């Protein structure tokens, strides 16, 4: 005895319901929701990360390009490292590189008193690593050892 599916399962009277979708995806003022600030902070982070990488590679040409042509901020705190690119450069073990890269950063607005997540400044870092010439340059540029 073969039963039809329709005999076993009662027919369901399903009507397609019309639903009104109210989707408002247009944003008249992007700065009102932080879009502009997000874009600016993402760009700043990206450029500072690129600067950090070039400092690690000791590539003065690319450092100069990032600072002068692209506006990379050597004072931008990079949360993944807890320091700024400027902290990295002042403690570099290659003294001639550290001195020239520090000079380039200072010319681009680097702050000798900018703090890391641990509260250290580039003055502290250059002192810890024994970078005396870099320390002297930082002090002449407004670095404050008492911070």
UniProtKB/TrEMBL annotation:
Keywords noted in UniProt: ANK repeat
Membrane-spanning ranges: none
GO molecular function annotations of the record: DNA endonuclease activity
Record SMART domains: ANK (SM00248)
Highest taxon of source: Eukaryota
Coiled-coil region(s): none
InterPro entries: ANKLE1, Ankyrin_rpt, Ankyrin_rpt-contain_sf
GO BP annotations, alphabetical order: double-strand break repair via homologous recombination; resolution of meiotic recombination intermediates
PROSITE patterns: ANK_REP_REGION, ANK_REPEAT
GO CC terms, sorted: cytoplasm; nucleoplasm
Gene3D superfamilies on file: Ankyrin repeat-containing domain
ANK repeat placement: 118-147
Protein name, per record: Uncharacterized protein
């Amino acid at each position: 005895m073969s039963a039809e599916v329709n005999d076993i399962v009662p027919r369901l009277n399903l009507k397609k319901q019309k639903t009104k979708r109210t989707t408002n995806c247009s944003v008249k003022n992007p700065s009102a929701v932080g879009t502009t600030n997000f874009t600016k902070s993402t760009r700043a982070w990206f450029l500072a990360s690129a600067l950090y990488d070039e400092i690690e590679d000791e590539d003065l040409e690319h450092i100069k390009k990032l600072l002068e042509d692209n506006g990379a901020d050597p004072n931008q705190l990079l949360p993944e490292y807890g320091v700024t690119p400027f902290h990295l450069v002042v403690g570099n073990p290659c003294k001639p590189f550290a001195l020239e890269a520090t000079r380039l950063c200072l010319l681009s607005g680097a702050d000798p008193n900018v703090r890391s997540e641990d509260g250290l400044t580039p003055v502290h870092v250059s002192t810890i690593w024994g970078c005396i010439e870099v320390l002297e340059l930082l002090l002449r540029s407004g670095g404050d050892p008492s911070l």
